[in-house]
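Dear support,

Our group has been running a series of protein-ligand predictions, and this particular one with glutamine is the one our PI (initials K.S.) wants archived with full inputs and outputs. We had some confusion internally about which version of the output was final, so please treat the block below as the authoritative record. The input we submitted was:
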Amino acid sequence: MSGLGKGITAASTGRLLANAGFDVTAVKVDPYLNVDAGTMNPYEHGEVYVLKDGGEVDLDLGNYERFLGIDMTSDHNVTTGKTYQSVIEAERAGDYLGKTVQIIPHVTDDIKRRIREAAEGTDFCIVEIGGTVGDIESMPFLEALRQFASEEDDEDLLFMHVTLVPYSMNGEQKTKPTQHSVKELRSIGLQPDILVGRSENNLDPETKTKIARFCDVPTEAVFSNPDVPDIYHVPLMVEEEGLDEYVMERLGIADQALPKEDRSQRWRELVTRDRTGTVKIALVGKYALEDAYMSIHEALKHAGIERKTDVEVLWVDSDEMHDEHRDRLREADGIVVPGGFGSRGTDGKIDAVRYARENDVPFLGLCLGFQMAVIEHARNVLGLEDANSAELDEETPHPVIDILPEQHEIDDMGGTMRLGAHETQIESGTLAENIYQSDSCTERHRHRYEVNPEYIDQLESEGLRFSGTAGRRMEILEHEDHPFFFGTQFHPEFRSRPDRASPPFVGFLEAVIDRHEAPPSDERTDSDYDNTEDEVTI
Ligand code: GLN
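Confirmed final output from the archive:
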């Protein structure tokens, strides 16, 4: 069942195998017909995660990159759209001349080829099949895995099935959903080797015995996966249950693993670190859904690990900048304005930037958030009335953000933005240089618009500075007269890892902690702020 946490269970198992000295990679299979996740609405599917090669993929790949500490490529996200596209292209090219092209064997062969290629050169490949057993869309993938089982040696392949174990009204753990989904799997020729029960608490011994008996696995092959306050604790829990040891034994490689005392304890050390305090950060976006901004939440958490501070994220809806949303913005020690598309909620974002700039509140603007900071500066500091992005208002008299020149000829929406890792040159003596401790950085991108080169000189005339550039593209901005005002055209959140927090997030969090510890005494009052001429809504 989707949303159950099978990705986190799999990634956690992978983390432990990596701690034991193995090379681990992963493939996420998404049975939808979209070729990639790039055109999907974050409100339905969560954020679109961007890989270094520019692949726009399911957010689960972000979890694999963060848990396994690896960089993946778009080949690690297999979709129905991708397989059908290549099978149909091959058919048109005449590759199957004379044959009837069918799901079995042509589509299933393509699926197996993709998985084998992604696994090449590693010790382990975790293949996660999204969706629910029984979905029409996932059938070709499950069939491909069934074929795998007969083509590969027994000790090279394990099937792990994650199921929901709910509680009855009288507090009893129910195994029926597990029994039924295993029955469903067996009807298509798949017998799970390992069963993991997602439940509020650990599985009771009787529950494990019952699942084992009905699903035809040994009791030692049934594992618990209870709720935990933080997903980063799942590897610790999986280790406690011994799932990693069981996997290694079943695959006959336990003797190749590092002895327990030599395995890396880094993950445990990072996620159980003592924290000295809590800061509050306002995230000003338009999707009231944590998954829509997952990598930003994670990057804030990573900076928190590095600075030994808990981060509480206050949700501020940029479309509803009044009442409790306004109060939360005022309560926050720092403000993040994330990426996004389209005009809904952008006025609220611009108001939030202004509030941060005028009140010396640490500010981090990411992609659209960077563009909002440029527009705010143009309107409220330079007095360029109705300055805007051409994306949001085609008729604006001052398109300070304009379409990338190479985008003019592009009509297709899928995979056509400026995507993936690109290098930025950093000017010396700037906040950006201080943050990155380098004269360049390479971060991931996903945008169609940029700072209009015609406005650069004017924009830089009153305290705003573009301190990172890639040729004529403006990549980083900062404000000279502000404790921390930093915006990036790229998305640093996608490279952030628990043991390698993203530099802009760490810099931001340091400023946030400083402000939290010594709040400015001359903060503007509500009435001062509400009396500004243009009546901002904050
Ligand atoms: N919509 C903006 C653009 O296309 C920003 C994109 C983003 O925030 N990822 O340039």
